Please model this.
Amino acid sequence: MHKKKRISVLIIVCVALAAVGVLGWFLACIFEGEPPHITVEPLPEFLASSQKLVIQVEDKNRGLRRLKISLDQEGRKISILERKFPFKGILNREGVHTFKTEVLIDPRKLSLAQGRVDLYARVWDYSRRNGGDGNLSVSHQKLSVDTVPPAIRVISRLHYINMGGTGLVIYRVSSDTDQSGVFVNKYFFPGFPATSGKEEGTRVCYFAIPQDMVTQPSLYLWAKDKAGNRSTTTFNYHIRKRKFRTERMNISDAFILKVLPYFSFYPLDPNATLLEKFLKINNDLRKKNTAFFHELLKKSSPEKLWDGPWVGLKNAAAMARFGDRRRYYYKGKLVDKQVHLGLDLASLAHSDVPASNSGRVVFAGRLGIYGQTVIIDHGQGLASSYSHLSNIAIAVGGTVQKGDTIGQTGQTGLAGGDHLHFGVLVDGIFVNPEEWWDKHWIRDNISKKLALLR
Model:
C-alpha cells in the first residue's frame, strides 16, 4: 500500500513538473525579449529628388506586429507608411515573420524644407513585453534635403577653338558644387580649382574639340553638387573648321619584317600572314594604347605645373602632322585607314629630346605601337607624350623642368625610321601640339584668360 502511494505521489510530482515546464516554456515564448530585425537600403545622405527605399523587417519568434515609416523635420511629423500584421494560429506561428516593401520619398511632394530631416523606421513584434506592446526596433537616419542645383557663372568671354585644338574656359561655381566641367558632346572635361586669385569657387577647364567630330559639336558647362543636383549653362564659343591632310602609307613585306621583332610581347597568330599581323598591331594594339592614354591621364595634378610657350625638338623637320588621314596600301591595294594623332619630328639620329614644359613624369617605358614612350603630366588635364625613343633618361614620379632632356629619338614601336612622335593631350584626348608651340596662340587663348584670375 505504501509502495502504491509513493508511485502515485511520484506521478503527481512529474505531472506537476511537466506542467510547470510547459508553462515556463509558454511564458518564455510569449514574453521573449529578442527585438525584430530591420534594414533600410539605401541610406542616402541627401534628398535631392524622389528616392526609393527598400524596407525589410524580420522576426523569427513571435512574428511581426506593426511597421511604421515616418519623417520628422523641425517638429513636423510625416507618416510615410503604416502596416499592421495579423496574429494567426497558436503562438502566431502562421503569422507574418518576414516582410519587404518599397517606399518613395519625394521631398517636393512632401513639401520638405531645405535642411535636415530625420527618417525613422520602427517595427514591433507580438511579444507580451513592455506592457504588451512588444519588442521595438528603430532605424534612424539623418538626411539633408537639398533640391537647389549649384550655380555656374562664366567669367571668360571669347572662346575661339580650332577643330582638333584646345580651349580654355574660366568660370565660377557655388560653394556646394562637388564636380564641374565642360561637355563637348559626349566628352566630359573636368574643371580644376584656380591656383591663383582670391575669389572662392573659381575654376579653370581645358577642353578639346576632337579631330574626328564630323558635325559642329555642342559645348556647355555642367556642375553637380553632393546631393546630385545638376546645372548646365552655355557660353559663347566659335569653332574654326579645319581640313586635314591625306597621307599615303605604302606597306611592304620588308617593312613588316623589320618592325615585327619589336612586337614579340604581343600575341599574334603564328599562322597569320604578314599583312594580317601588321593589321592586328595597327588596329587592335593601337586601340588599346589609345585607351591607356585616356585612363592614365584621368588623374592629372589639380595644379598648373607648366609656364609659357612649349619647346620642341631642336633643328627638327616635321615628317607628319597632327590629324593626317593616313591611307595604308599593300601591293597597291588600300588595306587600312588611321589618323595620325601627333607630330613626327626628325633631326639627327638619337637626338636629345627636351621636355616641352615643366611637369611630373607619369609614364616611362614601352607602350605598344608608340615604342619607348615618356608621358608628362602638366597639371589640370594637360599632358605631353614622346614616343619611338631609343633611350629614356627619366623615371616615373620624377619632376622635369622645361627643356630638360628626357631621352633620345629612335625607331622603337611602329616606326620606319629614327624620329620623335610628339603628342599633346587634354584629359587623355590628343590635340594639335603646334598650338602649344605658338606664343601668340598661348597669349590670346590661354594667358589672357588666366590673367582674369589675378
Remarks:
- The chain has three domains: 35-145, 152-240, 246-431.
